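tool=predict chain=A
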Amino acid sequence: MRLAGWGSAGRGRAVLAGLPDDGPDYYLAARNMRHGKPRVGSRGRLPAGATLMDKMDRKVSRKAGRVHYDKRKWIIEPVFGQIKTGRGIRSFTRRGFHAATAEWKLIAATHNLRKLHRHLLATAAAPITAI
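tool=predict ok
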């Protein structure tokens, strides 16, 4: 399933429709969400004919949904900043969706390997204490 670059409403509906019902609880930005401005979804009862986009918009607009959705700021977003700023990777060098996907997987794998390497170096240098 592809979640990146789903900005148009058509692709957003396709992504939401493709999510499994028995999977984890998803929180996706269904509408344009501005930085620093609280989202206020429509109030009252959700209409019987509400679309998947309307349901997700309501879900992330509520207080409980905002708490879950806001966690991306310190869980997911720093990775993109580290890759863009720390490693200087700001664009893909290969053309085409499949080539860019493969390149992104390589970038993410090397990012994780670097983190693992730094962690192993730090723990190996730490003195061993008796229990």
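The chain has six helices and no strands. Helices lie at 9-18, 52-61, 63-70, 72-75, 77-86, 97-125.
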